[in-house]
Structures are given as C-alpha cells and as structure tokens.
Amino acid sequence: MSDKISFRNVSHRFALGDSSFTALDRLSLDVADGEFVTVVGPSGCGKSTAINIAAGLVKPTSGEVLVDGRQVGGPGPERGVIFQQYALFPWLTVRKNVEFGLRLARKSAAERRRTAQHFIDLVGLGEFADALPKVLSGGMKQRCAIARAYAVNPTILLMDEPFGALDALTRVQMQDQVLAAWSRERRTVMFVTHDVDEAVYLAKRVIVMASRPGRLYEIVLVDLPYPRTEAMRLSPEFAEIRKRVWNAVYHQQPASMEAADDEDNRRRSK
Amino acid sequence: MLAMNVVAVVGGVALWSAVVAWGKVGLPSPLQVLVRALELARTGQLLTDALASLRRVLLGFCLGVALAVPVGFLMGWYRLARGLIEPFVQFFRMIPPLAIIPLAIVTMGIGETPKVFVIFLAAFLSSVVATFQGVVSVDKTLINAARVLGAGDATIFRRVIVPASMPFILVGMRIGLGAAWATVVAAELIAAQSGLGFRMQQAQLYYDLATIFVSLIAIGVLGLTMDRLLLALENRLTRWQERI
Ligand SMILES: Nc1ncnc2c1ncn2[C@@H]1O[C@H](COP(=O)(O)OP(=O)(O)OP(=O)(O)O)[C@@H](O)[C@H]1O
Ligand SMILES: [Mg+2]
Q1: Which of A27, A216, B115, B220 could cross-link B187 (Cys pair, CB 3.0–4.6 Å)?
Q2: Nearest C-alpha of chain B: how many angstroms from A253?
Q3: Which residues on A lie below 8 Å from B160 (Cβ)?
Q4: What pTM was computed for the model?
Q5: Mean pLDDT, chain A, whole residue set
Q6: Has the ipTM of the complex gone over 0.90?
Q7: CA B169 to CA A221: how far, in whole Å?
C-alpha cells in the first residue's frame, strides 16, 4: 500500500464543562508516500487538532490514524513535528537543540555531532551553531526547529503553520528551502497554513477544511510540476488554482466563519 | 550604576550623621557605631554572633529548599500530589512563621531545633510555591516538542521540566532566603545564647543602641551578600532566558 498517512473517520471532541465541542468531525484523508499536502481552512476548523492526532499528541475521540498501515498510538521519531511557536529549548544552543532527538535515539557523541552539524549547515545556521535561541531571529529559530526535526530522519513531517510568524520575504525563502529539501528526500509532508498562496505553491494537493464542526470541505489538486518556481507562482495557472482554493476557504457558509471567529474571541478573552 | 550606589550609601550615612547632630533623636552617630563594631569584632563577639545566626539561617534555608524543590516538583507533576499537598501549603503560608514560635518552643524545647525549624518553615513555604508555579507554567509546546523527538516521561522531567522551571526555583530561593533572615532574629528570642538577634535583645536591656546598630547592619550585610550570591547563581543558570 502506498498510503503513508490515513485518517479514518477521525473525530475529536473537546469536553467543555458539561457540554462538548466537536473540533473534528469524521475526517477521512489519505496522504500518499512522498506526497506534499497542505491544509487550509478558517481559524478553529481543526487543522492543529488533525496534526496533533497524526503526531500522536492527541488521542482522537473516535476513528484512527494509520501511519504505514499501523495505528498511531503515540508520538514516534518517524514523524517529525514542526510547531508554529518554534518550540526550541531556550536553555540549549542550536547544536544541542538539534542533537536533542539524536541523544534520545542513543546515537554516539561523534555521530550526534556529525549529523547535527550536517543539518545545521543545511539550514544555513553554521555560524550560530553555538548560539542560544534568544539571539536568533524568527526565521533562524524556525530553521533550527526544522534542522532538529530533520536530524532524527523522520519519514513524515507534520508542520503546523511553521512560517506563520515570519515576514513575507523570509517566508518565501523558507518555502523554497522546504521544497528543496523535500525534492531531495521525498519525505511525506503535511503542512498546515492559513496562507492560500503558500498552500498552493507548496502542495500537490490542498486540503480545504471547514469549521463548526471541523471537517473536510474540498480537496484541490495543484496540477503544476515540481520544482516550483517564481515564474510558476506568477503564472495564470497558479492564479486559477489559487482562486479555487481562496473561494473554498473564504466563501464557505459565512455563518460558520463568524461562529468560529466569535469562539476564537471568546477563547482569547479568557 | 555602582557609582550611584556608592553615592546613595554615602548620602545615607551623611543623613544619619545630620540627624544625630540635630540632637533631637537619641541615636548613636556613625562613628560611635563604627567604634563599637571594631570593639565587638576585636573581642570576637561579633564573629561568634554572626556565625551563630548565619548557621541557623543556612541550616534552615538549605533544609527548606532541599525539601521544597522535590515537593514543588511533585505537586506540579502529579495531580494527586498536588491535591494532597496544596491545601496544607496554602494554609500554612497564611500563618506567619513567627506565629509558630510558641508552638515550636512547647513541642521542641529551647535548643537549636525550634529556631532552625521556624526558619526552615519560612524558607520552605516560599520556595515550594515558586517551584510548583515553575513546573505548571512550563510551556506545553516544549513538552510536546520533546515528546515527538522520542522523549518519555523521565526524560521530559529531567531535560525539560527541570531546566524550564529553574528561573522560578531560583526566584523562590531568594524569597526563601529573605524569609529566613526575617525569621532568624525572632527565632533567637527563644532562649538563645548567641546570635545577632540575641545580642540585640541583650543590648536593649542595657540601652546599648550602638550594639543594636552593629547587629542590624551585620544582618543587613550578611543577607544582602547571600542574596547577591544567589542572584549571581541565577544569572549564571538562566542566562538562556530572554530578558527585556
Ligand atoms: N484544549 C481544547 N479545549 C477545548 N477546545 C479546544 C481545545 N483545543 C482546541 N479547541 C477547539 O477546537 C477547535 C479546533 O481547534 P484547532 O486548534 O485544531 O483549530 P485550527 O484549525 O488549528 O485553528 P487556527 O487556524 O486558529 O490555528 C477550535 O474551535 C478550538 O476552540
Ligand atoms: Mg492551529
């Protein structure tokens, strides 16, 4: 079987006092081995929940996620996760951060050092290998997080709005770096974003989700060859696909989006 | 910065002299206090007293912190432990450690034990809350990040929870140290034979203001020195923190 990740009727409800809130409603989705899919949808539609379930950090209320045909029971080093908030260990240097997973995998000191150095150089942080995260810019922090995830050699990368906090220019550079790494290694990538442009530029398929309850809304195939280029980004074909994704995201039932916003506000105001 | 601090100290002493020169308040002058300090230092009494107080503070403080850190970790890490321990901690925190002194005397006698115990209690209660706060405020994404890299609970505790709560623990230790010094003088009211607090008591009987001043200043200097040492340790261990 060539499906790397399969969501099978995955639902998740959060308990809220005596009621509950359906964050994800019967999501079924297959991601092929080596495929790059992006996930977009209005805020609160369950994108992070889906990623966390696939990562094994959240146990779904019902349904299951299969990775390589086996049910996910918890986190595993074959699934690398990259978080929006970088999640670097602030007390460790870039090098020690990248070595963190290697140490857990009981690699020898020499091998740790070699592997870490390789990935630090790959993401262009060579000069900062012994710096603490606090001196890095947002883009550098995220590159360090990417190096840390790559270092344990996962076959799957789960990325939850990894570039959400970056400026537009850094973002575009990071997109190209991620695509370059992907075309070399062909890991399976599931990449959450709220940027429609980014979603189309990166993916072979864009998974559009809807909220209240969080569910699969539409899958848009991006019929553009890899490697993706700037010319492609500016092409009419790209614009056409982008428009389809845009409409799928922003012209869902307006009521559902407002509801999601309200809830978001409520959550923040707490 | 240092220059300003020196100016402040010199200014303070000058103000003190001025107040004494004014003559309306019956205070000893800085010079008298200095003379008394030298005298007490020469006879060795100052050192004996300072060491006695320091020993109690250090003993109570170290015992308090040594217990507070594991208990704080337990409370933060296990819901059960939190449920069982928190009511007691919150309750005893509301009772000033000094209010425990009568109870301590009756139950522990008048030796060193009740004194050290009261200081221990003061240090423990302030540190335990800080440690517990540190553990519960560890960023969940850091725990998740460790988990997806393959960390189990023991590793997460050792490599994430402990370093992440270190700043809180050190702040708690400094508060605990302050509480320990605040308590020692009162603790030395319990039939002590030596100590800076005891010396002040004695001096009070003889209306010996200079000795009281010497003891007060000694307590201040010792407390401040220990606080600075802890601050240096804190800066060293938490250099990774983003400071604004
Ligand atoms: N721990 C929780 N307890 C209760 N409700 C939660 C919890 N986590 C998420 N939710 C709710 O579940 C829904 C889905 O959350 P999720 O974080 O997956 O959304 P998202 O699509 O990632 O949104 P965003 O684009 O804002 O990141 C949201 O409406 C949110 O309010
Ligand atoms: Mg999210």
Answers
A1: B115
A2: 33
A3: 89
A4: 0.82
A5: 90
A6: no
A7: 53
